[in-house]
Structures are given as structure tokens and as C-alpha cells.
Amino acid sequence: MSNSVDVKQETAALLDKLGVARDAWTGGDMVSYSPVSGEAIGQLKSVSAADTNAAIDAAHEAFQAWRLVPAPRRGELVRLLGEELRAAKADLGRLVSIEAGKITSEGLGEVQEMIDICDFAVGLSRQLYGLTIATERPGHRMMETWHPLGVVGIISAFNFPVAVWSWNAALALVAGDSIVWKPSEKTPLTALACQAILDKALARFGSDAPANLSTVLIGDRFIGEAMVDHPKVALVSATGSTRMGREVGPRLAKRFARAILELGGNNAGIVCPSADLDMALRAIAFGAMGTAGQRCTTLRRLFVHDSVYDQLVPRLKKAYESVSVGNPLETSALVGPLVDKAAFDGMQAALAAAKVEGGTVTGGARVVEAGKDTAFYVKPALVEMPKQAGPVLEETFAPILYVMKYSDFDAVLEEHNAVAAGLSSSIFTLNVQEAERFLAADGSDCGIANVNIGTSGAEIGGAFGGEKETGGGRESGSDAWKAYMRRATNTVNYSKALPLAQGVSFDI
Ligand code: NAD
Predict the structure, then answer these.
(1) Structurally, how many domains does the chain consist of?
(2) How far is the C-alpha of 449 from the C-alpha of 455, rounded, in Å?
(3) Could you tell me if 284 and 183 lie in one domain?
(4) By its UniProt entry, which Pfam families does this protein fall under (predicted)?
(5) What is the set of active-site residues?
(6) Of 252, 308, 440, 453, which has the fewest CB atoms closer than 10 Å, so is most exposed?
(7) Judgement on whether residues 309 and 368 belong to the same structural domain of the protein
């Protein structure tokens, strides 16, 4: 792994190009590191709890003006954001690769996802429909109306440093909400870049966008907590670990605020006897090794029918042995670095625990080149397990795939659902009974259930999220926008009488 790209210099050039002021990322107390080389690439100024409160108050004022701007006009701002993102795609994608360690196509893919959600939200800005509902009272009309909700607080994880913001921001902005974003402390530079891109769109949009419509709060989890506790934040959309959700959820519940919780996954695939094994192999390889196993939808558990186990698993092991691991800025390697040493240590601990449970490990060793001991590259690990136990039951945020044999379909469905998380799932089969059963009420219990597609790589058109300890939130497509608005039921009496519902009489 040569390191001829000067990561620091390139970061500075990209931030300049994207319009981020130098003093926003130099001389501050919070250091951003590139997982590519492990070196510091920015020193940001973190905000205080008092700054956070003031920013939220200002965002609330912005909300009060923005909610009165017609929704299709709000959509115009998001259309401009989509245009600015198209223009910035190469630079922002590269910055994602530098700060989150993603390979080039995934860095660019993440920005494409931002563009896609902007397009979706622009259309949505003319489709924020309510219903007209049949009423039992003559001369009355009953309907529901959707109104802007308030300040939307966004907390995001390091592994989708820009897309998760845009899923929330694009919907919230067309919904008439203002936004306040607490990005991951591991990826704050990409957040500054997103705000700079939105600022360009705002400058083109004109004066009916209020000041402080969107704010980025640089800081650690305590800033997230201040946001969670602030009474003027109507909704917090929090993406990250289940541990984080366990802290955030009750705090929001305590003040009856809304929550969208997008938490950890422990996603599984089932390979059935009739599966197209070539297709399954590719889908499994991408799902399990892609993004170095650092997606919430990463494939972590694989159940293979015993009639095809010996055909599939040796091929899979070969793919694990030969997959290219390396610097995403300089090579076309398919697997980039882990985010930091803690991620590497967590992976090694899980592999050791798997061995104790009888697991046989292929891969998993650290790849160090050219004395770069501050970066953590690793060969993805495939672990053949005698049963689902120990670390298999938990999410380890690293490229570990646990592979298990099965023989009975009902039993494997039970095993599939026997973990705490419920995000994504997939089945590989050409048998329609198995496919439909997997998608049925007594099939996969996850928010995402796929047939002949891997667990990762969702499109923005569908609602994204999962059940159980994944938190139950839904973002992105379908009717996820409803979480960013408040619903009012309105009944209008255009008769000359005042009939009461349910035949109640109250004559005075
Ligand atoms: P993390 O939980 O460590 O941090 C996520 C964010 O939460 C950060 O911005 C952090 O500062 C903030 N935070 C942490 N504790 C907080 C608290 N008590 N109050 C308020 N904010 C707090 O997660 P991570 O390591 O950055 O990301 C990896 C995790 O995120 C994995 O578990 C992964 O599955 C999950 N994830 C889920 C989804 C999804 O859509 N379901 C998407 C991406 C990542």
C-alpha cells in the first residue's frame, strides 16, 4: 500500500473547492482522522451545550417562517440542492473516501443516493396529500391535513456520513421543517462540506428561505444529548448503534418528542437448494465484504442448505482469500480500511470468541504495508460455525461472515429471526413457496426482506429501517415523509344544524 497521495493536502484542496472556510476545520479541538492513513486531516471547533441551545432556538425561528413557504416552493430549494450535489459529486465522493475510508465507487454511490433522495423529495413537495374521509353527519366534510412539524434534529453515524443526512434533510425541508445536524465525531468534515453545498443552493434560492434553516453542530455525543433534550426539537432522527438508541429513545419519550431510530443490524441470508449459486456468491460477497463490513445492512449471518454447502462455501472462501484489500484512494481494491483501531480490536475479539464456540476462521488478519501502522486494513473473515451462538448473535461492525448449515426450512426461519436486531434479510431460492414464505407474516421479521438480492444496497424509493433493536424507524422513500409532519383531522360543518356524532343529544 503505497501512500503517495498526500491525504492531508488533498483534504484541504477538496474542502476549499467545496466551499468550506478554512477556519472551520483548522485550529480547533476536535480532530478528524482519515482511516485511509490514520493521520489527522482536520481540527474542528466543537460547539458547547449553550451554543447548541442557541442554535436550536434560532432553528425554531427559521421553522416558523419556513412552514409558511408553500411546499412546492420548498421543493425548489431541494431541487437546487440536487443540482449542487450533482456538480459536487466527484469532490464530495472523494472526501467521503478520505474521511470514511470507502472505496471510490461507494463514496460516489453515497453522493448519488443524496441526489436520488433530492429528486424524490422534489416530487414529494407536490404530493403531501391528506385524505378526505366519509363522515356520518350530514352537511359535514372530514379531512386530514399535513402540516410542518418543527425543528428536526439529525444524529448520524460515521459509516454513511453524508447520505443519512440527506435522507432526513431532503424530506424535512420539503415538509416545512428546519434542520439541526450532529454528525459523527469521526466524520465531521464531510458534514461541513454538505452544509457548504446546501448554502450554495440557499444562495441561489432567494430570500424566502430564512436564516438558520440548516445548522451543523460539531461535537461529541454530549452535543447529541443536548439536542435530544431540547424542548424545541420536535423530532430526532438518530442513526447509529443500538447502544446509542437505548440512551436516546427514553430521553425523547420522557418529553414525548418524536423519534426515528435507525440502529444496528445483524442481517442474515438463507441459501436454499434451488438457489442460483453464481448469483448468490456475488450478492454474498458484496453484502458481507463491501464497505469492509461497515454497513448497517452488511450480511453477517449466512445459512446454507446442506445439499449446496459444499458447492458454495469453498467458492466463497476462495473469494475471501483473493479479495483485494487496500488504499481506496490509490488502488481499485474492493475492501478499504476499518474506521479505527477500536473497530479492529472489536473484530479480533469477535473472532476469538467465535473460535471458543467452535468456529473455523478463514481470513481476518491485519494487512499492514509500508509501515502504515496507524491505519487498520484487514482481510475479511469467513467463519464456519457449528451453530448460531456467541458473537453470531451480535453485530460486530467489521467484515465477519458467520456461515452455518441448515436442513429444515421452518427451523432456519426460526434461527434467522432469533437475534435482537431486525434490519435486513435475504433469501436465495428459485422456489416460489420458499420465497413467498420468507416474505410472509411468519417469514423474515426484518424491515427489509429481499429475494435473490443481498441484504445491502437499498434504493431510496422504499422506506428504510428495521424492527426490534434496530429501532423501528423508517426513513427515505414510501410514506416515510409522514414522520416529518404533523397530522390534523379537520371536520367542517356546512349545514345549518349541529348533529353530534354517535347520536349523542345535548339540547340546551
Ligand atoms: P454510534 O452509536 O457510536 O454513534 C452514532 C452517533 O450517535 C454519533 O453521532 C454519536 O456522537 C451519537 N451519539 C452516541 N451516543 C449518543 C447519546 N447518548 N446521545 C446522543 N447522541 C449520541 O455509531 P457509529 O459507530 O458511528 O455507527 C455504527 C453503528 O450505526 C452500527 O451499529 C450500525 O449498524 C449503525 N447504523 C445504522 C443505520 C440504520 O439505518 N439502521 C445506518 C448506519 C449505521
Answers:
(1) 2
(2) 8
(3) no
(4) Aldedh (PF00171)
(5) 262
(6) 440
(7) yes
Give me the mean pLDDT over the 223-252 stretch: 98
DSSP letters spanning 27-49: S-SEEEE-TTT--EEEEEPPPPH
Joined grid coordinates for residue 411: 427451523
Co-location of 223 and 116 in the same domain: yes
Note whether residue 441 is domain-resident. yes
Same domain, 152 and 233: yes
pTM (global) more than 0.90: yes
Tens digit of pLDDT for each residue in 451-488?
999 999 899 999 999 999 999 999 999 999 999 999 99
Kindly state whether residues 99 and 126 are assigned to the same domain. Answer: yes
Query: 317 and 362 in contact (C-beta within 8 Å)?
Result: yes
pLDDT of residue 369: 67
Shared-domain flag, residues 443 and 342: yes
Range of the domain at 411: 267-458
- The secondary element (H helix, E strand) that includes residue 487 is strand 485-493
In a domain, 302, yes or no: yes
Query: How remote is the CA of residue 166 from the centroid of ligand 1, in Å?
Result: 16
Query: 216 lies in a domain?
Result: yes
CATH number at residue 325: 3.40.309.10
Report the CATH number that the domain containing residue 105 is assigned in CATH. 3.40.605.10
pLDDT digits (tens, 9 = 90+) for 19-64: 999 999 999 999 999 999 999 999 999 999 999 999 999 999 999 9
pLDDT at 1 over 60: no
Give nearest CA residue, ligand 1 atom 20. 224
Picking from 176, 169, 148, the residue whose alpha carbon sits closest to that of residue 82 is 169
Instruction: Give 346-370 pLDDT, tens digit per residue.
Output: 999 999 999 999 999 999 999 986 5
In terms of domains, do 249 and 312 share one? no
Report the residue among 190, 228, 244 best suited for mutation to probe ligand 1: largest number of ligand atoms under 8 A from its CB.
Answer: 244
The answer to the question of residue 430 being in a domain is yes
Same domain, 241 and 292: no
Q: Which residues have CB under 6 Å of ligand 1?
A: 155-160, 182, 184-185, 220-221, 224-225, 228, 239-241, 244, 247-248, 262-265, 296, 395, 397, 423, 470
Which residue CA neighbors atom 40 of ligand 1 most closely? 262
Q: In this predicted complex, what is the ipTM?
A: 0.98
Contact of 44 with 27, CB cutoff 8 Å:
no
